[in-house]
TrEMBL record:
Domain of life: Bacteria
A GO MF label: O-phospho-L-serine:2-oxoglutarate aminotransferase activity
Cofactor(s) listed in the protein's UniProt record: pyridoxal 5'-phosphate
EC number(s) recorded for this UniProt protein: 2.6.1.52
Gene3D superfamilies: Aspartate Aminotransferase, domain 1, Type I PLP-dependent aspartate aminotransferase-like (Major domain)
EC category: transferase
Protein known as: phosphoserine transaminase
Pfam families referenced in this protein's UniProt entry, alphabetically: Aminotran_5
Length: 374
């Protein structure tokens, strides 16, 4: 028996509010089952799996309204592996990174550790706010997260532009927790990369990227043999394999299947603008709740910076936020704990596309109920 037992009316239909792995819809599981035995457990070099990969690539291009010449790449390893791939086969000499949380900082650290690159420029902002790009001669990659999952800060997708930006410099956006949940203009990026376990409600293990013709050209230049590049990190290989709906080594077929169904679901419902309206509704419910609350406040002070897919809510010292998460967890409402390294008295709640806005409304009632009884 939970110490605080929620009435059934305050238990969301689905209690998963984590930032990844995140809620998977039943329809995705049904689609996965439907691929038994024709696709699951069959060769990734044959048509059934290649067609599945092709469907995901086409669906993503449609979802992102991919401009002429942009392509969808994929490979094994997730966004973390993409950072290492970018360090080896995308950055020529020097990168600039906006860091306003854990994930932006990790890419910056990967570039800083590479002995063949110049020291990157790191533009850091305190967690809960964000920094801006600075035009800088000699920088050939400008990198930032579309959504910083560790803090719930969102940025606009804008190309590095203006005096002082070298011609040919690329804008590279970590969209792991944004893609499929926030609308954006693809022509404002050269590389928009992500893992599938957030708004795409799939499992981890792969990365996907929407890449511009300029990014493709850069990959081709960077991988011409002047620099040693481990084969699994070589983006030229990802490019040539992706064009054939293939991966260098075996991909997770279940991840692709869950992904395919989620992309189709979003496209069939109206695409990115529909998804963005849904996540804005869900996050709006939480921010409004926090602003009205006596004990809670949105962690991100500037409403313009507040994420519509990852909501962070601070509690004042009279409340132990970890006790709220614990009570919720005992009632089957999981993963509302804050990002572990942020170390705040906070709840972090995903409002990804798969999550029902009504479940978020129910969640606010559940939190109120717990607060009255702690
Ligand atoms: C989750 C996340 C990552 C890491 O993704 P992996 O699949 O674990 O490598 C990177 N960037 C952002 C913004 C994320 O939210």
């Amino acid at each position: 028996m939970p110490a605080i037992e929620l009435p059934t009316s305050l238990i969301p239909a689905d209690g998963r509010f984590g930032c990844g792995p995140s809620k998977i819809r039943d329809e995705q599981l049904a689609f996965l089952s439907s691929l038994q035995p024709t696709v699951l457990g069959t060769s990734h070099r044959q048509a059934p799996v290649k067609n599945l990969v092709g469907s995901v690539r086409e669906g993503l291009a449609q979802l992102f309204r991919a401009p002429e010449g942009y392509e969808i790449l994929l490979a094994n390893g997730g966004a973390t592996t993409f950072w290492d791939s970018a360090v080896h086969s995308l950055i020529s000499r020097r990168s600039q990174h906006l860091t306003f949380g854990e994930f932006g900082a990790k890419f910056g650290a990967a570039a800083a550790a590479a002995p063949f690159l110049e020291e990157p420029t790191i533009r850091k902002a305190e967690p809960g706010s964000r920094s801006e790009l600075l035009p800088q001669a000699g920088v050939d990659v400008y990198a930032y997260p579309h959504n910083e999952t560790s803090t719930g800060v969102m940025a606009d997708v804008r190309r590095a532009a203006g005096d002082g930006v070298d011609p040919g410099a690329l804008t590279v956006v970590d969209a792991t927790s944004a893609a499929g949940g926030i609308d954006f203009d693809a022509s404002e990026t050269d590389v928009y990369y992500f893992s599938p376990q957030k708004n795409f409600a799939s499992d981890g293990g792969l990365w996907f990227a929407l890449v511009s013709p300029a990014a493709i050209e850069r990959i081709e230049q960077q991988t011409n043999g002047d620099r040693y590049i481990p084969e699994s990190l070589n983006l030229a290989g990802a490019l040539s394999n992706s064009r054939l709906n293939q991966t260098l080594n075996t991909p997770a077929l279940a991840t692709l299947a869950l992904m395919d169904e989620q992309v189709r679901w979003i496209n069939d419902n109206g695409g990115l603008s529909w998804a963005a309206a849904r996540t804005a509704e869900s996050s709006g419910v939480l921010y409004e709740w926090a602003e009205k609350s006596e004990v809670a406040t949105p962690f991100v002070a500037d409403p313009q910076h507040r994420s519509q897919v990852v909501v962070t809510i601070d509690f004042d010292d009279s409340v132990d936020a970890s006790a709220i998460s614990k009570a919720l967890r005992e009632n089957g409402i999981v993963d509302t704990e804050p990002y572990r390294k942020l170390g705040r008295n906070q709840l972090r709640i995903a409002t990804f596309t798969a999550i029902e806005p009504d479940d978020v409304r129910t969640l606010t009632g559940a939190i109120d109920y717990v607060l009255e009884r702690l």
